[in-house]
Design brief:
The complex is a heterodimer. By secondary structure, chain A is an alpha+beta fold. Chain A has helices at residues 16-26, 36-41, 51-66; strands spanning 6-14, 71-78, 90-102, 105-114, 117-118, 120-128. By secondary structure, chain B is of the alpha+beta class. Helices cover 19% and strands 39% of the residues of chain B. The longest helix of chain B is centred in the middle third of the chain and has 14 residues, at 45-58. Chain B starts with 10 loop residues before the first strand and ends in a 5-residue tail after the last strand. The chains are: A alpha+beta, B alpha+beta. β2 (71-78) of chain A pairs antiparallel with β3 of chain B. Chain B: This is MaoC family dehydratase N-terminal domain-containing protein. Chain B: Residues 33-119 form the FAS1-like dehydratase domain.
Chain lengths: 129, 131
């Protein structure tokens, strides 16, 4: 990988069933990720994806781009919720470029969107070259 | 009800260590569609979440009033099958914005030898003012 490389954007469709499976696998059974009424009761627009599910999709894109390189840093702010409808799903697009390659580390610049809106703030991923 | 400001600096361990098995990793990787056999980088959230629940339970904070605001992980080494991991969460900051508590936390995930495997920083947004 070289600085400036543009990585192929990855689109992942997130469904309510995915969120239930993620809740079971991660232990995060917060009902705002499964129950429309609870989500609305705390001011959310509807059932939202776990922030960590979206971040896991970033981890998945990074693994696919780098052929499973060791991750040394991964994180983001969850600035806008990924609202997941009861039918169909929400498409999360993970786009990236190689920001820098130095000292054996590759830093990726990322943009993660849903319906054209950024859902992660200051997303960061660093892997071993 | 706002969160008690004297919480800053308090530590909350996860109630039990987690032994990393192939089945556990496989279930997590399958749920997020992670390719290959390696451990998904967000897997440590399982530990960090256990420690967060210990914190929420101790403070009687409802999980459904929490939204994850930020999460960052820094990894010292890859997690592998056979690791026995323990997590400890520290409340690092607390402020109020528009009726919500913004809770800063740091978590440290260690292996059976006590070596740090991964550190996490998280922001939790608690919307408790309307209850």
């Amino acid at each position: 990988m070289n600085t400036g490389d543009i990585l192929e954007p990855k689109t992942f469709t997130v469904t309510r069933a995915d969120l239930v499976a993620y809740a079971d696998a991660s232990g995060d059974q917060n009902p705002i990720h499964q129950d429309e009424d609870v989500a609305r009761s705390v001011g959310l627009p509807g059932v939202i994806a776990h922030g960590m599910y979206t971040l896991a999709l970033v981890g998945r894109a990074v693994a696919e781009w780098t052929d499973g390189a060791e991750v040394v840093d991964l994180g983001a702010k969850f600035t806008s919720p990924v609202v997941v409808p009861a039918e169909g799903g929400a498409d999360v697009v993970v786009a990236g470029t190689v920001k820098s390659v130095a000292d054996g580390l590759v830093t990726l610049a990322l943009e993660v969107t849903c319906d054209g809106q950024k859902v992660l703030g200051m997303p960061k991923a660093v892997v071993r070259a | 009800m706002p969160v008690d400001p004297s919480l800053v600096g308090r530590e909350f361990p996860a109630p039990a260590p987690l032994t990393v098995t192939r089945e556990r990793i496989g279930a997590f990787a399958s749920a997020v569609g992670h390719p290959g056999d390696d451990v998904p980088p967000t897997f440590p959230i399982v530990l960090a979440f256990d420690a967060m629940m210990a914190f929420l339970d101790a403070e009687q904070i409802d999980l459904h009033r929490i939204v994850h605001g930020e999460q960052r992980f820094a990894y010292e080494r890859p997690i592998t099958v056979g690791d026995e991991l323990t997590a400890r969460l520290t409340v690092t900051g607390l402020r109020q914005i528009g009726g919500a508590d913004i809770i800063g936390t740091a978590s440290e995930i260690t292996d059976a030898t006590g070596a740090v495997v991964c550190t996490g920083k998280a922001t939790l947004v608690h919307s408790g003012a309307t209850s």
